[in-house]
Design a protein that fits this description.
Four copies of one chain form a homotetramer. Chain A is 51% helix and 14% strand. Chain A has 16 helices and nine strands. Chains A and D meet through helix 9, strand 9, helix 10, helix 11 and helix 14 of A and helix 9, strand 9, helix 10, helix 11 and helix 14 of D. Chains A, B, C, D: This is Acyl-CoA dehydrogenase family protein.
Amino acid sequence: MDFAPSPRAADLAERVRTFVDTEIEPVEPEVLRDIAARRARGEDSWPPAPVVGELQGRARAQGLWNLFLPAGHGDGYAARFGTDGGAGLTNTDYATVAEQMGRSPLAPLVFNCNAPDTGNMEVLLKYGSAEQQQQWLEPLLDGRIRSTFLMTEPDVASSDATNMQATAVLDGDEVVLDGRKWWSTGAGHPDCRVGVFMGLTDRGAHRHRQHSMVLVPLDAPGVRIERMLTALGQYDEPLGHGEVSLDAVRLPTSSILAGPGRAFEIAQGRLGPGRVHHCMRLIGLAEKALELACERSTSRVAFGKPIANLGGNRERLARARIAINQARLHVLHAAWKLDTVGIAGAQSEVSEIKAAVPQMACDVIDLAIQLHGGGGVSEDFPLAAAYAGARSLRLADGPDEVHLGVVARHLLRPYAAPATASVTTPGTTSGTTSGTRAAEREASR
Amino acid sequence: MDFAPSPRAADLAERVRTFVDTEIEPVEPEVLRDIAARRARGEDSWPPAPVVGELQGRARAQGLWNLFLPAGHGDGYAARFGTDGGAGLTNTDYATVAEQMGRSPLAPLVFNCNAPDTGNMEVLLKYGSAEQQQQWLEPLLDGRIRSTFLMTEPDVASSDATNMQATAVLDGDEVVLDGRKWWSTGAGHPDCRVGVFMGLTDRGAHRHRQHSMVLVPLDAPGVRIERMLTALGQYDEPLGHGEVSLDAVRLPTSSILAGPGRAFEIAQGRLGPGRVHHCMRLIGLAEKALELACERSTSRVAFGKPIANLGGNRERLARARIAINQARLHVLHAAWKLDTVGIAGAQSEVSEIKAAVPQMACDVIDLAIQLHGGGGVSEDFPLAAAYAGARSLRLADGPDEVHLGVVARHLLRPYAAPATASVTTPGTTSGTTSGTRAAEREASR
Amino acid sequence: MDFAPSPRAADLAERVRTFVDTEIEPVEPEVLRDIAARRARGEDSWPPAPVVGELQGRARAQGLWNLFLPAGHGDGYAARFGTDGGAGLTNTDYATVAEQMGRSPLAPLVFNCNAPDTGNMEVLLKYGSAEQQQQWLEPLLDGRIRSTFLMTEPDVASSDATNMQATAVLDGDEVVLDGRKWWSTGAGHPDCRVGVFMGLTDRGAHRHRQHSMVLVPLDAPGVRIERMLTALGQYDEPLGHGEVSLDAVRLPTSSILAGPGRAFEIAQGRLGPGRVHHCMRLIGLAEKALELACERSTSRVAFGKPIANLGGNRERLARARIAINQARLHVLHAAWKLDTVGIAGAQSEVSEIKAAVPQMACDVIDLAIQLHGGGGVSEDFPLAAAYAGARSLRLADGPDEVHLGVVARHLLRPYAAPATASVTTPGTTSGTTSGTRAAEREASR
Amino acid sequence: MDFAPSPRAADLAERVRTFVDTEIEPVEPEVLRDIAARRARGEDSWPPAPVVGELQGRARAQGLWNLFLPAGHGDGYAARFGTDGGAGLTNTDYATVAEQMGRSPLAPLVFNCNAPDTGNMEVLLKYGSAEQQQQWLEPLLDGRIRSTFLMTEPDVASSDATNMQATAVLDGDEVVLDGRKWWSTGAGHPDCRVGVFMGLTDRGAHRHRQHSMVLVPLDAPGVRIERMLTALGQYDEPLGHGEVSLDAVRLPTSSILAGPGRAFEIAQGRLGPGRVHHCMRLIGLAEKALELACERSTSRVAFGKPIANLGGNRERLARARIAINQARLHVLHAAWKLDTVGIAGAQSEVSEIKAAVPQMACDVIDLAIQLHGGGGVSEDFPLAAAYAGARSLRLADGPDEVHLGVVARHLLRPYAAPATASVTTPGTTSGTTSGTRAAEREASR
């Protein structure tokens, strides 16, 4: 057992941290103020300030680009488009690095490591045809375009993917997309060109083979960004979250990823590392919030003492320290499981962190807000936006409750459930019993 | 012991509820959308839609106007300007009524019962000169103007009022105001005409006689609304929260409320009922959030069940039911204590509810958000704004921690603290000991 | 609305409190030490010390006897056997009084108001025949005998009463009892003479008419107290909790309460007020624990300060103050609902308090333990026993979760559940749908 | 980064687990029942059953003996007295092994790895003279005698070690011990021969050089075990917790460990690894409780479902899974810090786990209790005793709050506290200011 990061991870993490501290944070307040000012004046607040592009260039020049590219799968692209050292990182190594990116809302974009582009690029890497990779993956890796993910729907409980109402109907050599999606992150960016769409293709197929994933150019006829959403009052420019309608959008079947009916399989693979990335960035975000809390509470005085020394504040700060440390180890361990036994073997661990880390981050940020007084809820500190982001991640990529359900399923699997019906109503036939147990199994997902 | 509301409270509460349900809620979404649309277009989002004025007229015509006016003190004004029945309500009766107003963000304004106008009107009622009452109280009661409260400051921990840096210096028959205030609620409304300003007048006086409260017209030279603040991303139009600078603002000393040095005394009286009002509205807000949670979770289906029936959702809803019910009784009891023994006797109770109810409301609203999925954090439901409001009230009018300190002080008063120094270091002189204990007393506030 | 207790309740509460403070608490440590000493020596620790009987006599002489007797139903007995004033108390009045009894583990017995005797006496009062009342109720009211309740079973989840395996089979003019019960409180007392037994009589009847309640003399052939149980290490002498086996116990059918098949109906009526009594005593217990916490934390010093002033202790004490106050109002309100609308109308309220108050008491006692350091977990303070009692009440009379289920059922009743099957699988017939909804209703109990 | 245990740790952990599962757990219920039965009969419940000695012999024969012996320091003894492989384990390796011992209350004693013997042996190893090692360490390593630790006192808040009232006064070539100690674990065992006593020697010395540690034979004149304490009702035979008085106990100065005045230094070194051991055993205990919870909740049925599937139970089980996993990683990381940077560098980490893990264990065990219904609080399951043990560890070796204070001190060290006095009262001299800050530093310990 060795808790020290690998030399490569340590080196990259330190360089990313230095970049965030010295290049991004100094300009971040001005970038955010400029966005807010444009928004307040009714101007277009979506194009990022030119400095963001400059930062991207500098990050790339330093080899701090596309660091998310997975070891093994992304090495060729890593050599061409980015990562210092020329080979992809393990999930464990990337987790160490991603934490540092979580400290700034701009950093993931600056390092070309922001959701949902990372997930979309991974999907293209693993499942894209050569043509699809050339058309979409390469410009994404190059930072020339951005992408969005079209999965969640406003009209149904999307935590249950089988509820999905959007369709991707095959019609000869075309696929026709219809539906309405929302929380399509990235859709606000002026460079957003493509969406990864998920829809129902064949209701008659096995329940995990009914849906397809389709690459849809956002300028295709019938695609319309209906509006940009706020999450707890935040537009999160320059990426944002769109509500997107698709009305009889016709595309060649070559737009389908990996062939019809493979959406669930692709989504499964996409979301594992993505959840680890989210959680690791949340560790960095919580760590940043704790630093702000420490700074503020030691530099402001009330009732003759630094605020930190009043009432239970020191204990709360200590508990935040503990919670972050436990969560960090938990995420690193999940990443290590992904590296050592793969997604199938790490399902419980990935769901564990996804159920626990966003809530932890909310708690730490909320403490920081409280210690900042009125300033904490204002735009003068990054805390209100941080809270909105962390809170939204208790819903995005599966709400806490769904992940707890996955954890429980793994936990209880070794324990034989009793044949419940026979216990309570002895006369029940075995047919009914197995029906009941099938329902339970369903309920337990 | 009788938990039934008085006939008058029951009648008014029912009429207010009916008004909220049938007159306000049907137009509320459109009013809020219109504000958001103007804001998005860079137009002035602060003037309320004409329908708000119409609603005010109808509420007033029904005697549902200025219901906050306190029994005894406000009866004359109640007869002239509002309350059905012609006499002010007890705190207990008003609490029952105010809960219903908390259900809608527009309702308090519609009934002329919104903070900080209510507190300012109470101050004018109790401490205002005839001239001050005529100039400011009457148009406020009439709904012709609005007001703000200039107390909290951006540069110090304002939870400790002795930190205050703003000054109200006497200069002959003038008083000169300097300082910077923020979280001045109401400052965004186009009709906002006057602020109740608190500043240091005489550092040499007894610590609770150093500050003065001054009525400052917002169009006085030197007064400037620097910006409107967001609270967790919400501008809260049409009232909003301003940051206001005062630069050598000269006013006649007749602008001082009750004479120089009486600000603490006035603030004390102002904040007791105000905190009860806030808490009671939060009960209504939490109740509304719970209703939305029940509606959504019984009408959306995932994994073959209404969301309510998944995992721990029913238990969480039940716990929310319990928390609201306990909090409501707690607030009503505090109001009853205010009525029966006065502010001095109800200090612990008022701080108890102020420390507990906003957190309770946050928890219930957060549950409702979670049960709404992505919709919960969006602007499609009133939950994001509700959360922002409830969360801000964990800071406004004294952060939770300060109120817990008050509760602890009352709780521990009967228990003699040990002469601590003498226990640990027997040689200590009594002088040092009492110094230590004085410091402790200070620390315990 | 009036939060003041009635003059009669105030008077009785004060007299009970005085009795507890001046008569019981001074002898309590010695009584408990004597029990522990006998137990340690392997002697019979169950007979209470003679002083307990003396205290009972004095309480009775002061009219502080059988105060639990319900207004209306118990007035005759109240006049004959106890309550000062000669008429039973309302639930609201008794709640105020019962709180004071909760301060001492001996007090309920001293005032003849201990569980399960109170519940058993109420059952006899409402459902007992004249003969049953003469045989069992009168000596119970007189304090000459004690009783136990034989409901919970070791071999099944007794939170679901339909799981019950014990039987009460009719055989001519006899009823034959078989089964094993545990957590039969009171069974350890040497004067315990009778148990109220619940068993299955007719599986073919309506599900709430299958069980009977039978009065079983503990000296009937076939009844055997297998052992006395510990609850978190406590035997709780002199009442205790027994495990009792019944092996072909034959009794005349006149032993059945209210006739065969009425056990559920009786249990329902029995448990409502009983839960309020438990909760109210827990308020007194928590209040006592908080007092001990305040005393200890202001009288011990560490790091140069009274412990109360270290870290978050004052805040925790304040939160305990808040939690008790909210819980007290909640219980009083539930009692008032019982008085004004009856058990059927107060189901949610009774379950609300039963789900919330024991946990609150555990939390407050746990805080008191922590502030006492090692002493807190020892027998030198009543806290370890108090914790055991409060913790056990999260299970007794229905675990928290069952009561939360009741609260949720009431809360969600007004919201129409969707026809779930039709949403997810459009082809489903209405027959299946209503089957699903019946199952849901079942699940929601 | 590598989360896999070392081959040696994996091997030993598996062998210990197998031993616990196949040798200890089968006899454990009978051992505990026998103790309880002797206690109930008033017989001596302290001598362990003969099978415990047999188990010790078998464990030793398998090299599963004295596994706690630290790498480097204990290798010689490890080769002579125990550990398979002949060399001591790192803290990280031992943590993995100790978790398995935490599954059974008997296991630590069986493997000669129980507190406080382990800590006492470590102290003797590091600080003992050759004579002291021969007299006490060797028989302890051999399992021929047991020991106790005489530090905590009943009459003062022992969380602040400077409160200590016991004395160890030098008198020529003798040291004279006086005082009263409690929570002296191990004192109940019939083989307990020696105590490690801490007392004040020289009040005039530097505050961390005033106290001495002395090896006191329990049969020395003046030593008296006043009583054995219960912790939440548990005597914890065969080790137990004693209250011990020392009345003018005269010993040669050669009984002093490492010389007079070095008690704080020794205690510091003793407690670091000890706290990691406690925490790691608690992980095993919590894991065992979770297994029992899963077994019970899947094998009992209520309302037609396994209890696991009712209400929020699956979510709670999942949260327990998460909490244990986070805590385990946290403890392993703290152990790794001890190994890699030593006690001084791992202070925050050790206090983090000590503040977090006992509470986590309490929560998990409490959940298991709740899922067991009435059985959970009884002696039929090991849960009541487990809860008592975990709860006591929130007090033993420093209460949670003291450890949170240590964590906060480390967390806030980099942040300069403001010169508070100068902010609030500008005229204060620097002398007063630094006095204030010294006081703060003191307060922050």
